[in-house]
Amino acid sequence: MKNIIAIRITLIYFLIGFIWILFSDQLILSIAGSSNAITVIQTYKGWFFVTVTSIFLYTVINKEIRKKIRIETDLINSKKKAEESDHLKSAFLSNMSHEIRTPLNGILGFCELLLDDTFKEDDKQIFAKHLTKNSNDLLKLINDIMDISKIQEKQYEISKKKFNLNTLLDHIYLEYKNSDIKAMRNRVFFQVVKGKEDTDIELYSDPVKLTHIFQKLLNNAFFFTQEGYINFGYLRTDTGIEFFVEDSGCGIDEADRELFFKPFFKGTNQVIGSKGFGLGLAISKGLTNLLGGDLQYTSTLNEGSRFFFNIDKSHIVSKKPFKKESEKKTDIQGNQF
Question: Of residues 102 and 24, which shows the higher confidence score?
Answer without folding.
Answer: 102
